[in-house]
Design goal:
79 residues; mainly alpha; 3 helices; 0% strand
Length: 79
């Protein structure tokens, strides 16, 4: 990742985690969708932070960003 913006990789993960908790608290996520989104969150986080390959880490960041965008859209459409 760019040494200028090292916090940027954490932004999507933090946004996804906060939105997951928020949507779960609102009851907007049913059990199956909660399990699927939590699975995607964990897989993306593992790829993003614990992989040895920069390509897999970039895939994790992209997946985490797509999850954050999906959860934000779901939050906006549920209210």
């Amino acid at each position: 990742m760019l040494p200028i913006l090292p916090f940027l990789t954490w932004l999507a993960a933090i946004t996804s985690a906060v939105l997951l908790v928020f949507l779960w608290d609102l009851g907007a996520l049913r059990r199956l969708s909660l399990v699927i989104t939590m699975g995607v969150f964990l897989v993306a986080g593992y790829c993003q932070f614990f992989s040895g390959s920069p390509m897999v880490a970039a895939l994790g960041v992209a997946l985490q960003t797509m999850l954050a965008v999906y959860l934000m859209a779901r939050w906006k459409l549920s209210g």
